[in-house]
Design brief:
The chain is an alpha+beta fold. Helix content is 32%, strand content 15%. The longest helix is centred in the first third of the chain and has 16 residues, at 2-17.
Length: 363
């Protein structure tokens, strides 16, 4: 009981400490020259991977980290780092320099992130690689690493404790997710990270960036998943498969998908009940204003017919068996219900009349 009470107190203090870490997009503007270079990179960005879409290769069962992460027991060394967000997690090193992110605890963010990243990847969008792992053995991990770290940072004791950390002992974390970033180098300017959805308008196909159809397919995919937590730091601009940030056509990808299928993280009632299309069904208007933060960085927009067709053609290849495998491998409960809800949302995209000609965006 004493340990339980201590855990509750530590978590409470950690949550209070996190108030200083989760600042959303309220970060200082970087130097003008560097910001201009970042914007130039975004203009030339792609939103789909270079690999051609192959329906025959769709596989939601195989672990995307196969050969690197052991789904039964993964052993790693605690890597102290600044905390962010509110979900319990920590960084850990495998043998060598490979770093993973471990999310732990009783949170629906774990199955949501596993399913959403695998779906995005199989449909040809950029996504990190997330595994479902039965047990992670972390050498050097403190008790409640996320919340204790937040508290140490608040008290400016993190450096002192890190210098005295015991890496001969370990803690086990069960039923967790293990994330490895998509290969590449992120384009970040000072404290500014990622991109906002309203910035997708700046991508220029004439400069080699994504086409309007591809950008609209990404927008529609965000609507399909309920990617309401879309502050800029939850997306990433990266030089995929590149070791430097000097690349011709970066990849604009969704990075943090722990709150998808909701909005309350794997909340089937809300996800199933909210339609894909907004308002007048003769239009192809999409909106997130009915979701938390009034849509965040996602402004109302009319999807082009070419964008609808692009995503519809890929979703059409997902059989009921595919969808069942997606939710089962991610650890969802009530898989038949989730499968039915998924197929219902797919039909809203695939089976509707063609979208009318539209302007680029709607206010």
């Amino acid at each position: 009981m004493k340990r339980t009470l201590f855990s509750v107190a530590l978590v409470g203090l950690g949550v209070a400490a996190l108030g200083g870490f989760e600042n959303g997009d309220g970060v200082p503007q970087p130097p003008a020259g560097e910001w201009a270079q970042r914007n130039e990179s975004l203009m030339r960005a792609k939103v789909l991977l270079d690999e051609p879409f192959d329906p025959a290769s769709i596989d939601f069962v195989s672990d995307p980290n196969q050969g690197v992460v052991d789904p039964t027991l993964t052993v790693c060394k605690y890597k102290p780092d600044e905390v962010s967000g509110t979900t319990p997690k920590f960084d850990c090193e495998l043998t060598g320099t490979e770093k993973i992110k471990v999310k732990y605890g009783w949170t629906k963010e774990i199955p949501s992130e596993i399913a959403a990243t695998r779906l995005l990847a199989e449909l040809g969008f950029g996504a990190d690689r997330v595994s479902r792992v039965a047990k992670v053995r972390c050498y050097g991990c403190p008790f409640q690493p996320f919340h204790s770290r937040a508290l140490l940072e608040l008290l400016n004791l993190d450096g002192y404790v890190d210098s005295r950390r015991d890496y001969s002992s370990y803690r086990d974390f069960e039923d967790v997710s293990v994330e490895r970033n998509l290969d590449g180098e992120p384009i970040e300017v000072g404290p500014e990270r990622g991109w906002s959805f309203y910035e997708l308008d700046t991508i220029d196909a004439s400069r080699g960036g994504a086409t309007r159809a591809e950008v609209d397919a990404l927008r529609l995919m965000a609507i399909f998943l309920h990617h309401w937590d879309n502050k800029s730091s939850n997306q990433r601009l990266t030089c995929a498969n590149a070791k430097t940030a000097d690349c011709k056509h970066p990849l604009a990808m969704i990075q943090d998908v722990g709150s998808e299928f909701g909005p309350k993280k794997a909340d089937i009632e809300n996800w199933r009940s909210k339609p894909v299309w907004h308002g007048d069904t003769t239009r192809c208007l999409v909106s997130m204003k009915g979701l938390p933060y009034n849509g965040g960085t996602f402004k109302d927009v009319e999807i082009s017919e070419s964008g609808r067709q692009l995503l519809a053609e890929r979703l059409r290849h997902l059989s009921p068996a595919h969808v069942e495998a997606l939710f089962t491998s991610a650890g969802f409960d009530d898989v038949p219900e989730w499968t039915a809800a998924f197929q219902h949302r797919v039909r809203q995209i695939v089976d509707r009349p063609a979208c009318p000609a539209t302007k680029k965006t709607s206010s």
